[in-house]
Amino acid sequence: MNLHQITTSATTKQLRQFGFLVGIVLIIIGGWQFYRQIHPTTRVILWVIGGVLFLSGLLVPKILNPLYTLWMGLAHILGWINTRILLGVIFYLVFTPIGLTMRLFKRDALQKQIDKDADSYWVDREKPQNLKEHFNRQF
Fold it and tell me: Can you tell me the distance from the alpha carbon of 49 to that of 110, in angstroms, rounded to the nearest whole number?
């Protein structure tokens, strides 16, 4: 599903959930700032924005559609970036050391070396003892 499909197919239920969730989170952050006695102006702004979002989600969720579209677009972009970062980290921290270690010990897991003296590359396998059980539970 691409970004256009996600943002243009927002249902009233999704918009209502978005308003409730973001509104409550902003109110909680403002409450935390009130508890810690920090940033008095910021907490009031967070309470007002959170209250407006919460009430909009409750009364007129369709008004939240532009904000929802913007939020989902940002989430789509961040997801794309995080995927590339995560895949890069996994590649360089997991697969690269494994590959270098295998090269260091000259391990050929896929048996890619060409053996000019071999008649065939066929690998003989043992036949299963109980064929009926083997076919019933193949994996």
Answer: 59
